## 1
Amino acid sequence: MGELLDDLDAVGGSFDLDGLKKKHRRQDATSKPRNTLAAIEREILEEIASQSGRYGDRLDVLLRDMATLRQTIEPAITQWQQAGVSDADACQALNAGIAQYNQLRTQAQRVQHYLIIHREAMGFWNHDDVFRFYPIPAALTLLPPTHTPGPPEHP
């Protein structure tokens, strides 16, 4: 408060807001350049960490979707195998589910790769935690197409 009164006295009792701002800007700029740079660097690292968190969240969702889909595919495969190989519609539906599962797996691998890139940007070079916390299961193999014997061809 005393400094403000000195500023008022220096300008003859009138308040010069622009002059006061310029004075304090010059003082801040000359006295704390390293603190300003450190604040900017910290803000950049916080944004990188935030983006890494978003990649982790996205990876969680993809892995959860894969697990849910796999829980429906595996019993259906067992049921299809017990029913016999002749049900072409069931085979086609299962292959569509397997293809969707494998597509989710590809997306999860891509997001995991982006997460690793962001971790490296932050200076983390060991990614064992990423592979342990976000394990991506193996791809599923498409079922072989069913062959239903048709009438013999005549020569």
Note: Helices lie at 2-10, 17-31, 33-83, 88-121, 128-133.
## 2
Amino acid sequence: MDSQELKTKIESFGIEITFLEEETQFLTLTVNPSKLHELAKQLKEDSDTSFDYMFCQTGIDWLEYLEVVYHLKSTTHNHCIVLRTQISSRENPKVDSVYDIWKTADFHEREIFDLFGIKFNNHPDLRRIFLDDDWEGYPLRKDYVDEINIVEL
């Protein structure tokens, strides 16, 4: 499927989605965090999309909101998309885990939790992966301050 065919197919799922209209390498779409898991499950299970491989997952701090970005590939159909979800709460950021859909999310979600503080509901082992258990704060957030370890230029 090309990007337009993928877009039409994904729109048929009946979930409110915003598509990035700029020309990019992959079709890029944004979904509300409350619908992320539902959409992710459909993207994997629908035979026309078959996104069976999540090859990247990361967090981004845009100051106004936190975002989780998923790069998905169908090894059957050889097409890719970028799925994004924006979390408005900086004090208690949460989104559903996709570990039950793509096992590769296990360490990605732990890394994002550790460095951005985003909690993944229903993750089977959500704990720090890089930092000590008593570490305070989230080093990849733009408002993170560490007077001892961070050198400012």
Note: The CA atoms of residues 28 and 82 lie 5 Å apart.
## 3
Amino acid sequence: MTTAHVGSAILRTIDDLSGPSGRLEALLNEGTPDAPFAVLACHPHPLGGGTLHNKVVFHAMKALQSFGLPVLRFNFRGTGLSAGSHDGGRGEQDDVRAALDWLDREYRRPLLFTGFSFGANVGLQACCGDPRVSGLAALGLPIRAEGRDYHYEFLANCPQPKLFVNGTLDQFGPVPSVEKAVGYAPPPSKLVWIDGADHFFAGRLDEVRSVIRDWAASQFPALKAK
């Protein structure tokens, strides 16, 4: 394990996170000792260049860490230094569960999830209904991307508070299709549109951070901005 100071926060490399395919490369932005939640953040499609360093994932991490929460980011199997090979979203769900298990062992407190694009789809499937996960924020929900269709009927079994953030010009998530997907989700559920934003929220990431912060503060009164 190595540590580095990033502003007032401590960034740790995690060496003991392993999934079914072996070690998963991971970074932890540490939080305050009294943080009421710990957070898992998942990156977009690896075959499209997605990694834990993705800008959208970084901004989501910063939004939630502003409450003093520890945030774990990791690379899916076959990405960066993570062992294994890409599994089309199936094995990646097991990677998410392994990361949840690590956070649960490390912190023994409720968890929050956030993910972008492929990471949102895979993470939602793994986290929905998990009693350890108190809330979920999905960014850039994909419907069809690079020849692959994404389905969301499983959201019907997702009782936790949910936030969905998409751009109205998202090339992988047309407005009517995203609205249909989110419609499967029972309340509490909130869909926020970033007007004029594309899939990657280019030039609009500050707005995304604000939306995440506002939602988290409204849903979880225990959170206090740092």
Note: The chain has a mean pLDDT of 95.
## 4
Amino acid sequence: MASVAGLVLAAGEGRRFGGPKAPAVIDGERLVDRAVRVLRGGGCDPVYVVLGAWVGEVPDAVMVTNPDWADGMGSSLRVGLGSVEDAAAEAVVVTLVDLPGLTPAAVRRLVDAESDLAAATYGGERGHPVRFGRRHWLEVASSARGDAGARTYLAQHAADVELIEVGDVADGTDLDELPSV
């Protein structure tokens, strides 16, 4: 079975959230640690984390700092894919740090995807994570701009994207504000 790396985009400043999301603690665990644990539990190895507005230690991950994090998610995706290039992985599963409802079972479906271009869906709506085979990395990185990340690339290759339903085992809602206690 081919090796699949994991990539967590966690560099943003979290304007609407009130600060960087990566170190935020939800249910007793930092979001960044949870994202790494979920990717590893789903079969990704190694796991890379792109940091920026907040930089700190992240156990069980290769930490990468994006000096241009303020330029948006696209710059973090470029930095992350550039780092993963050194891994022996044939594919990478990319997720965002602010998906507390993502599960290892959902990630496993992406890791096991037959296509080298796949995206999770929740009730038919496309979301994260997304799987890119190595042959896509350079073009994905080249098209990643602003906060759109890989959206343009995925739209241009929509006919080739395997949609993998994970809504029965995960929740793809992103966290834009701290939950009320």
Note: The first strand starts at residue 4 and ends at 9.
